Amino acid sequence: MLLYSWQTECLKAWAKNGYRGIVNATTGSGKTVLALTAVKQLEAVADSELRIKIVVPQTFLAAQWKEEIRRSLGAGASDIGIYSGKRKDQGRKYLIYVINSARYNLARHILADLTGGFSVLLIADECHHYGSAENNRIFDFYKIIDETAPYYALGLSATPEIVDFRSISVPLGREIYAYDLGKALNDRIISRFLLFKIKLDFLPNEREEYNELSIDLTKCLTALRKERPELDGMPAPLFFASLQKLAQKGGEAARLAQTTLTLSYKRRALCHMAAERPLCAISIIKALPARLKIILFCERIQAAEQLYRGLLKLFPGQAGLYHSKMNDSARRNVLQQYKEGTLRLLVCCKALDEGLNIPSTDAGIIVSASMSARQRVQRLGRMLRRSDEIKRIYFLYIGESSEDRELMFGLKALEINLPVIALYYYKDKMVNAEYEKLREQVLQYVSSNRNNPELLRVLNKNLDLVLLRGDFLMQEPVCREKLSAVNTVIERNYWASALYVILARLGKL
To answer: Which of 272, 289, 310 is the last residue before a domain boundary?
Structure first.
């Protein structure tokens, strides 16, 4: 397997750390290849036969790992087992566990292998999932084994930002390497992309309800911080984790903590279900070329189902739905159709946040999202796996809410140095003040040379598309090349319109 430079450096750091450690690398940068190369590297130095235990958070990831082991390492089917649900393979060189089945069995299996004279490598995929009290049981073996035991570990995560980080970093090792989205972009490991930040409005009744909840929440937070001043200034993930623990205790502080959580949940739910979100998402899809494959992320199943129903009416036979309450067969079927191109629109929730390889996606619409920077990294990663095409990613947010601040904090946390195209969705149109100036220049130029109302109408319509597709940022020679290669009048009109805007932007019109 050919490695990227970061993977080579990372494996050296892993070996130097005694073949233990956590790797914090952005989605799509090659963590699976890194892990399987680590297997080969460790096999060359281990004193005894190596057993590889792989833990994943979801069932579909087990199948992906199995296929990648067969493809990359040439392992036979009899060497690879899966431990999940009704299937409980044992005694295999490679054994892939789904966390729900691993909690009460993995530690025992590792101890049995070590006692039986084997060396063990534990690969914890998406290891930020394993810090909770229940999931952390997979590491119970670590309390028993001797320091000299031939136990090795590799934790993989896009961003291991969990409150109980120590509970995974002790058995897996410290964080040995970080490779963020910005570095992956600079190294051309993931696709180039355009990032759109689209501001939406509440409807009047939504705004009124949001403001009322905000007033109540502010009062509650003020009282809570008087009771528990140590909460003041905490980062949001740690703050809410602390509230959840506090709410389980007795007394006034517990009551305030529970009320704060409830009000926060209601306010965020109102944000996620805002009526403008699906309308804006549909406007984006209409503006993009009909050949593009698009993933749409929603935070809540109810919102995803509502959007899916709307898409079915407008794009019959083109849309699929994927969420955790669907059965495994239905989810597998819709993913297969999306991969094969039978479906080109995929509406999903958190169930698709992590790990799934979907390399043929052209655009992503974050219809709604949590405040978690980790979740945003994962969702970006679904679209940014390497290809020659420039991807488009659209973040929708409510401007009258706290989402604007959270969004910009999340984008800053991704450490990407890219221009953000800021748009305002208003009455089914996208608006950008600077772009409107370019539009005026183009319309004036064309009308002064060809005073044709129908031509101006077509031009104006195409200028809307150029904005929403971001092609006005394209280099002039690239646009001219596309214009010369078109085969239809519609395409010629579009790229001619884009060229006008580019020339206006460059001061050449």
So the answer is: 272
Q: In this structure, is residue 187 part of a structural domain?
A: no
Give the pLDDT mean for 45-52.
92
Cα separations in angstroms, 233 against 4, 160, 213, 236, 373:
40, 21, 22, 9, 18
Instruction: Give yes or no: residues 165 and 279 share one domain.
Output: no
pLDDT per residue over 238-256, tens digit each?
788 788 888 888 888 889 9
With respect to residue 320, please indicate whether it lies within any of the assigned structural domains: yes
**389 contact partners, CB below 8 Å, separation of at least 6:** 191, 362
Q: What is the mean pLDDT of residues 146-173?
A: 77
Over residues 37-49, the mean pLDDT reads 93
Domain co-membership, 197 together with 132? no
What are 192-240's pLDDT values in tens digits? 788 899 999 999 999 999 999 999 999 999 998 898 888 887 777 678 8
Q: Which domain holds residue 492?
A: 434-505
| Percent of the chain at pLDDT exceeding 90 | 58
Q: What is the CATH number of the domain that holds 420?
A: 3.40.50.300
* Span 371-397, pLDDT tens digits: 565 566 666 666 666 676 788 989 999
* Pair (451, 355) in one structural domain: no
CB-CB contact of 400 with 202 (8 Å): yes
Same domain, 295 and 156: no
Count of structural domains within the chain: 4
Instruction: Report residue 72 as tokens.
Output: 């990359």
Alpha-carbon span 434 to 33, nearest angstrom: 44
Confidence at residue 292, expressed as pLDDT on a 0 to 100 scale: 92
Asked if residue 383 lies in contact with residue 297, where contact means CB atoms within 8 angstroms, the answer is no
Q: Which two tokens stand for residue 120?
A: 């063990």
What does DSSP say about strands 420-426 and 193-200: parallel, antiparallel, or unpaired? Answer: parallel
Which pLDDT score is estimated for 382?
65
Do 213 and 231 belong together in one domain? yes
Residue 264 covered by a domain: yes
Please state, as a whole number, how many other Cβ atoms lie within 10 Å of the Cβ of residue 104. Answer: 12
SS3 128: helix
Sheet holding 87-88, edge to edge: 87-88, 80-84, 94-98, 50-56, 119-124, 151-157, 22-25, 175-179
Residue 184 lies in a domain: no
